[in-house]
Model the fold of this input.
Amino acid sequence: MKSIILDNGIKVQYLNRPELSLFTLNLFLLKGAVYDPPNKEGVAHFVEHILMKGPKYFKSSIEFSQFLENRGIEFDGHTTPDYICLNIKCHQSEAYKATKLMIDMLTEPSIRPTDISNEKK
Done:
């Protein structure tokens, strides 16, 4: 496993296992639950779920899920007290697309009112 900390403080870990044809990318946002504002517990977890809806160029989270499924890309996330982690696993042939998706989810997140209302429930 290799780690890189970007200039903006984002820690990226990646694993390249050519013998398995597997590409895995973990991205850690160092803003976990302990950074939630007082009386606003759950903000970090909410952000994780909104980011997992995909980048804004997908019309819906369902379209995003179908895109991932059609390419065999597994996407997951979790929130801890210290960080939000987003994880992508795929065949190496999809590594570029998977990495671009991860970057786009952070820089161009889809923030649809329906997704927000569904996550608040």
Notes: Residues 59 and 110 are 9 Å apart (CA to CA). The radius of gyration is 15 Å. The mean pLDDT is 88.
